[in-house]
């Protein structure tokens, strides 16, 4: 996906976020059931603000969306409740960003290896592209309502489906490219939202997509969220990780 077509981001002030027990069509994840989930935070004064999600794909590397890049970010692994210290959290300040030269995907290199444990585990990237109708899982701390946004303090999960490419082209006729996919419910009511950018779309136990964009109002009928399709970037990911 070209960088010009990305979802407008709304930052979350984690320390003062308004809690909600349900995301858009989602529920609170079982704590640490998504051990590859990372949160990307930046500092504008105090405290930290949540910017995007990301996925741990090795003990040293994360995959996220290129539009999440900042001069530096704080990565938090092992998180569930953003306002509580629960034990498995790990914190990293990162400055090594490797965006794809044309599309909305980016690798982040951690300054040191993550400590792998039950709450912190990498997720394999998908080697093959997923088919329409495949059942998948999304997760993140993004908005739980739209257009009036509310944010959860706990990680949210939702089951969604990969949609037919023709539906994706119909929804976004001027912005659809080969290396993206649409997922959600065509009738609306379930999907990623503001603050979920860069987070994982997990299909068949592998990372199949990276949250990239969508319509201004989340989960609208006939306007599903858009994801960078990871299968198209396997060679680039491997080459970049090996080089750096």
TrEMBL record:
Keywords: Disulfide bond, Hydrolase, Protease, Serine protease, Signal, Zymogen. GO terms for cellular component: secretory granule. CDD domains: Tryp_SPc (cd00190). PROSITE patterns: TRYPSIN_DOM, TRYPSIN_HIS, TRYPSIN_SER. One of its GO terms (molecular function) is serine-type endopeptidase activity. The keyword RNA-binding does not apply. Transmembrane segments: none annotated. Residues 1-19 form the signal peptide. It catalyses: Preferential cleavage of Arg-|-Xaa bonds in small molecule substrates. Highly selective action to release kallidin (lysyl-bradykinin) from kininogen involves hydrolysis of Met-|-Xaa or Leu-|-Xaa. GO terms for biological process: proteolysis. Pfam families: Trypsin. It comes from the Eukaryota. Residues 23-242 form the Peptidase S1 domain. It is an enzyme of class 3 (hydrolase). PANTHER family: KALLIKREIN-9, KALLIKREIN-RELATED. Belongs to the peptidase S1 family. Snake venom subfamily. This is tissue kallikrein.
């Amino acid at each position: 996906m070209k960088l010009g077509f990305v979802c407008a981001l709304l930052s979350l002030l984690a320390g003062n976020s308004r809690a909600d027990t349900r995301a858009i069509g989602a529920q609170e994840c079982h704590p640490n059931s998504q051990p590859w989930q990372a949160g990307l935070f930046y500092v504008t004064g105090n405290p930290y603000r949540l910017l995007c999600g990301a996925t741990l794909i090795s003990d040293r590397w994360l995959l996220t969306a290129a539009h999440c890049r900042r001069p530096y970010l704080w990565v938090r692994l092992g998180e569930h409740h953003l306002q509580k210290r629960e034990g498995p959290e790990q914190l990293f300040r990162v400055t090594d960003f490797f965006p794809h030269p044309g599309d909305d995907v980016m690798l982040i290199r951690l300054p040191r290896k993550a400590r792998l444990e039950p709450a912190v585990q990498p997720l394999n990237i998908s080697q093959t592209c997923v088919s329409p109708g495949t059942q998948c899982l999304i997760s993140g701390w993004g908005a739980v309502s739209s257009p009036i946004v509310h944010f959860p303090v706990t990680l949210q999960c939702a089951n969604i489906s990969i949609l037919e490419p023709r539906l994706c082209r119909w929804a976004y006729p001027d912005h659809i490219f080969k290396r993206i996919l649409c997922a959600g419910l065509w009738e609306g009511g379930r999907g990623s939202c503001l603050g979920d950018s860069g987070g994982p779309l997990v299909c068949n136990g592998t990372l199949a997509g990276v949250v990239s964009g969508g319509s201004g109002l989340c989960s609208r009928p006939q306007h599903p969220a858009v994801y960078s399709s990871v299968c198209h970037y396997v060679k680039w990911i491997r080459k970049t990780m090996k080089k750096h």
